[in-house]
Design goal:
The protein is of the alpha+beta class and about 150 residues long. The chain has a single domain (about 5-10, about 35-145), classed as RutC-like (60s Ribosomal Protein L30, Chain: A). Helix content is about 30%, strand content about 25%. It is built from three helices and five strands; from the N terminus they run H-E-E-H-E-H-E-E. It has a five-stranded mixed beta sheet with strand order 1-2-5-3-4. Helix 2 packs across helix 3 (about 100-115). The longest helix has 23 residues, at about 55-75. InterPro entries: Endoribo_LPSP/chorism_mut-like (IPR013813), RutC-like_sf (IPR035959).
Length: about 150
């Protein structure tokens, strides 16, 4: 089954691929690897302060949708994704907040939901004091492609 058909079955419509906010490109293809720049959530705030873990996970899922939109723009079809290799998750949070993994699961779960076993990946989920534009979550990605 094609990934686009899978997205349709899941009721997922990809957003338009976001334009870069500064002096960088949204993605780079090197050989059989697709590197996607960090995609930020529209959710603003800080985990452990004014956002719940679930709100953070929802924000991370929105980052995942933007990653998929960028991959689709880069490749023409998500069927070219052979493997989700790695996600890097950044979570704006208070110093005592420790649920970064649960937050970034919002993106990780989406990748597995969409790609099945090819969606399982290596990952980092780290806390940061601030992210661009005051957003709660940013996630970047590396995909192996055909």
């Amino acid at each position: 089954m094609s990934i686009e058909k899978r997205l349709s079955e899941l009721g997922i419509a990809l957003p338009a691929a976001p334009a870069p906010a500064a002096n960088y490109v949204p993605y780079v293809i090197v050989g059989n690897m697709l590197y996607i720049s960090g995609q930020i959530s529209t959710t603003k705030g800080r985990l452990g302060d004014d956002l719940s873990t679930q709100q953070g996970a929802d924000a991370a899922r929105s980052c995942g949708l933007a990653l998929l939109a960028q991959a689709s723009a880069a490749l023409g079809t998500l069927d070219r994704v052979k493997q989700v290799v790695r996600l890097g998750g950044f979570v704006t949070s208070t110093p005592d907040f420790t649920e970064q993994p649960e937050v970034v699961n919002g993106c990780s779960d989406l990748m597995v939901e969409v790609f099945g076993p090819k969606g399982r990946h290596a990952r980092a989920a780290v806390s940061v004091p601030a992210l661009p534009r005051g957003v709660a979550v940013e996630v970047d990605a590396i995909f192996e492609i055909v």
